[in-house]
Specification:
The complex is a heterodimer of chains A (312) and B (387). Chain A has 2 domains: 2-238, 3-Layer(aba) Sandwich (Rossmann fold); 243-307, CBS domain Like (Alpha-Beta Complex), CATH 3.90.1280.20. Chain A is 38% helix and 24% strand. Chain A has helices spanning 40-47, 70-75, 92-96, 98-103, 107-120, 125-128, 138-150, 168-185, 196-202, 220-225, 230-236, 241-248, 271-281, 301-307, and strands at residues 2-11, 14-24, 29-34, 55-60, 63-64, 77-81, 156-160, 188-193, 205-210, 213-218, 265-266, 285-289, 295-300. In chain A, the strands form 3 sheets. Chain A has a 6-stranded mixed β-sheet, with helices on both faces. A 4-stranded antiparallel β-sheet of chain A has the order 2-1-4-5, covered by helices on one side. Chain B has 15 helices and 3 strands. Classes of the chains: A alpha/beta (312), B mainly alpha (387).
Chain lengths: 312, 387
């Protein structure tokens, strides 16, 4: 659990982060959204003390984060940034091993961990381990960047626009991979982005920041349904709202009794994808199948449209 | 098959044509200081040998003139250079009257221009071959070995520059080692002081402009003026600091030369350290901090290795510059190859000037090739991020 209590950061006369308090539950994904200059990156960097706060306290599992020297604290917290920040003069394997080496793990343990992470990220350790970062594609570099952040099995992972430099297709894949790994390791992730789509997709909770202040901190559905201010409403995007709301739900939860013609849609797909398919093919209903391929029922345009409406 | 002109080849062929037929190949002088008389290739060599050399030169120039395979161009330049190197020695023996020890035979402008033209051809071929760094050092070693063999074999012994050498063999090596010690020693001192200074300038922004400006100003002081300026403070140190005089510190001599070279070396070392450190990708630096490296670990593990090729470039500049500059140390009694240059100028004996100048140029050239190769080898692995 991460408790942020009354955190403020001032540079001379400008207040970058203004009295922010929030609690991040363990094993969840918290996304901090905001425009550039909203203080979201500064807030993130105060958690691992790359930036020291002017006032306020941050507690990690109950312990003040100033009870350790900064560099020791940072070794226990994962850190991944936009443009991955890989060391160009070290191989992929050496990059991933950075923190374990700093912590003084023995060689066998480091190698086992590096191989495990590379395999998890679909990078063959034999083929990719000895290569240099510039020999990898953008998507591969980003995966190595996240693997490096996770190398020392941190409970908390801080990410500053980690997918910012990726093209849309690779970005979606990277987001899915990250969610899968988060479930597997139970890591608490705090992710900074300016992309509301990413926030709604990734976040268990979303923190919206504006001009250094925490404007709203709530579950995605609530942010969409009840934006706390005009700023949040703009950030959500009025024309995107119903579709974002649908993207939060699974088709499985919108199934109605009955049957329909045509190719079935999997129950795991998002309701937004189902509506898009219905609108595009001009049909009133789609059959739904379970993970085992058995028919579950159908989804209808009418049913989905009701779900896209503003919650009461 | 149509023959097409090679752009550089046209220039080389024109230079060769002038040098082979219009410029003198060797100079004959009755003794070491009288003005010389020019000798063409055919006058300087026995008839058959002279004709052979002309034939080799013409064929090699034709190969250079047209677009020909690289291997052929390589062979042409190597054969032409080898023939010139061997036959200038023959010319020396041929032109020296039997039993005359005063006559001096030296290579003349035509010879030097021919060497220049075919070296240009060779350099062009080597560039186009895109040799690996190690291969370039290999070429350097091979060329040095060939020249060494020619020197040892004695086939150049009748040339004036070697006659000057024969008169000064002992002092040549003594001054040579002094020259190298001065150049390398001041470089080492500049690296020991300059690296930490550069790191400091990188970390403390307020210091940067000031330090670099001061070093810039030092760089613009003419060397002779700097020697003059150093006489007073070093003289004071010699008389007032116990033990300083015993270490050889005096107002003139090796000490001021060393200090001057050291001061001139500081700017390239410090400036390149600053530039190299500034060129380290921000993201890599941020990631290093974010993952819990201490400042020292970040400096030695990330910043320094990434800045290293740029710092090495600075060291290369300093080394080549120092080997050249060390020549003027002789002006204030600091020794080195400059001793021969200034003696030669004083006696209007150009051969003696060359005895000092040629090894200096050769040393600087070799140092440049070796350090370039080292820089390229360290840089290939450390290419900047592409994403």
């Amino acid at each position: 659990m991460i408790e942020i209590e009354g955190i403020t950061k001032r540079y001379d006369a400008t207040t970058v982060v203004d009295d922010v308090s929030m609690v991040i539950e363990p094993r969840t994904v918290c996304v901090i959204v905001g425009t550039s200059g909203s203080g979201k990156t500064t807030l993130l960097r105060m958690i691992n003390r790359l930036v020291e706060p002017t006032s306020g306290i941050i507690k990690l599992d109950g312990a003040d984060n100033r009870s350790l020297p900064g560099y020791e604290l940072r070794r226990s917290i994962g850190y991944a940034i936009q443009g991955h920040g890989l060391f160009p003069h070290r191989t992929v394997a050496q990059n991933i091993a950075t923190v374990p080496v700093l912590l003084g793990w023995d060689k066998a343990r480091i190698k086992a961990r590096v191989d495990e992470l590379m395999t998890l990220y679909q990078l063959d350790p034999e083929a990719f381990g000895p290569r240099y970062p510039h020999e990898l594609s953008g998507g591969q570099q980003q995966r190595v960047g996240v693997a490096r952040a996770l190398a020392a099995e941190p409970n908390v992972l801080l990410m500053d626009e980690p997918f910012g430099a990726l093209d849309p297709i690779i970005r979606t894949k990277a987001q899915e991979d990250l969610l899968a790994i988060q479930k597997r390791f139970g890591t608490t992730i705090i992710l900074v982005t300016h992309d509301m789509e990413e926030a709604v997709h990734m976040g268990d909770k979303i923190a919206v920041m504006d001009a250094g202040k925490l404007v709203q901190y709530a579950k995605p559905a609530e942010i969409l349904a009840k934006p706390a201010s005009a700023f949040v409403e703009t950030l959500v995007g009025a024309s995107e709202r119903p579709f974002r709301l649908l993207s939060l739900g699974r088709v499985r939860d919108a199934v109605e009794k009955g049957s329909a013609e045509g190719e079935a849609i999997p129950g795991d797909a998002s309701q937004r994808d189902a509506l898009a398919e219905l609108l595009w093919s001009g049909r009133p209903a789609l059959p739904v199948k379970g993970a085992d391929g058995k028919p579950l029922g159908r989804v209808t345009v009418d049913g989905l449209v009701k779900r896209a409406a503003r919650p009461a | 098959m149509t023959l097409r002109f090679d752009k550089l080849g046209v220039v080389i062929a024109a230079i060769v044509a002038y040098a082979a037929f219009a410029a003198p190949f060797a100079t004959f002088r009755a003794n070491r200081i009288v003005p010389g008389q020019a000798r063409s290739i055919l006058e300087a060599l026995p008839a058959t040998t002279g004709t052979l050399l002309l034939a080799i030169i013409v064929v090699a120039a034709l190969i250079a003139l047209f677009r020909t395979p690289l291997a052929l161009r390589l062979a042409a330049s190597v054969v032409a250079l080898a023939a010139l190197a061997l036959l200038i020695g023959v010319a020396g023996t041929f032109l020296t009257p039997a039993g005359n020890t005063f006559a001096r035979i030296s290579p003349a402008s035509g010879f030097w221009i021919l060497i220049f033209a075919f070296t240009l051809l060779l350099a062009d071929v080597l560039t186009r071959l895109n040799l690996s760094p190690l291969a370039r050092v290999g070429v350097l070693v091979a060329v040095s070995a060939a020249i060494g063999l020619l020197l040892i074999s004695g086939s150049w012994n009748d040339l004036s520059i070697l006659k000057e050498y024969a008169n000064r063999a002992d002092s040549f090596w003594a001054e040579g080692s002094k020259h190298v010690t001065l150049a390398l020693g001041s470089l080492a001192a500049a690296v020991i002081v300059g690296l930490p200074l550069g790191i400091l300038c990188h970390r403390v922004e307020r210091l940067r402009a000031g330090v670099l400006n001061v070093l810039n100003i030092i760089q613009t002081i003419p060397s002779i003026a700097l020697f003059g300026l150093l006489i007073a403070p070093l003289g004071w140190v010699a008389t007032h600091v116990p033990g300083a005089a015993a270490l050889g510190i005096r107002g003139i001599g090796t000490a001021p030369a060393f200090v001057a070279l050291f001061l001139y070396s500081l700017l390239p070392v410090v400036a390149n350290t600053v530039v190299g450190l500034a060129g380290v990708p921000r993201a890599a630096n941020d990631a290093a901090r974010g993952m819990g490296m201490t400042d020292r670990q970040r400096l030695f593990g990330v910043e320094f290795p990434l800045a290293f090729p740029v710092i090495l470039t600075g060291i290369r500049i300093v080394l080549v510059q120092n080997i050249g500059l060390a020549t003027i140390a002789a002006l204030i009694g600091g020794g080195g190859f400059g001793v021969f240059v200034f003696q030669g100028v004083g006696q209007t004996a150009m051969d003696l000037v060359l005895l000092g100048a040629v090894p200096t140029v050769a040393l600087a050239f070799a140092a440049a090739i070796i350090l370039d190769a080292v820089i390229e080898m360290t840089a290939t692995k450390r290419r900047v991020e592409t994403a």
